[in-house]
């Protein structure tokens, strides 16, 4: 079942590439932040020092995790 789902999702993505390119070139959608979407560029990370003292990184995937991460960060601070 997972193989079928992954295959259909990959096929749909391939079929939508021309649409995304047309929208990107015509309206400036999808292409303006493509590097960030693919994980190649994070401008905010370039400003950080290499080894900040006392830093704790909190990773969150969903909105709920991010909100609980804020509460956790405040308590840790």
Short description:
Helices cover 64% and strands 0% of the residues.
Number of helices: 4
Question: Roughly how much helix do the residues carry, as a percent range?
Answer: 55-70%
Based on CA atoms alone, the radius of gyration comes out at 19 Å
What's the oligomerization state?
single chain
Q: Mean of residue pLDDT?
A: 85
Query: What does the main sheet amount to?
Result: none
Structural class: mainly alpha
Write a structural description.
- By secondary structure, the protein is mostly helical.
- The protein is 64% helix and 0% strand.
- The protein is built from four helices and no strands.
- It has helices at 2-27, 34-38, 43-46, 63-76.
- The longest helix is centred in the N-terminal third of the chain and has 26 residues, at 2-27.
- The model has no long low-confidence stretch (mean pLDDT 85).
Task: Provide tags for this entry.
single chain; 77 residues; mainly alpha; 0% strand
How is the secondary structure organized here?
Blueprint: H1 2-27, H2 34-38, H3 43-46, H4 63-76
């Amino acid at each position: 079942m997972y193989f079928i789902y992954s295959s259909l999702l990959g096929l749909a993505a391939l079929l939508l590439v021309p649409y995304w390119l047309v929208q990107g070139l015509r309206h400036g959608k999808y292409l303006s932040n493509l590097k960030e979407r693919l994980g190649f560029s994070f401008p905010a990370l370039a400003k950080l020092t290499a080894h900040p003292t006392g830093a704790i990184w909190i990773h969150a995937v969903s909105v709920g995790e991010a909100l609980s991460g804020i509460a956790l960060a405040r308590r840790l601070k």
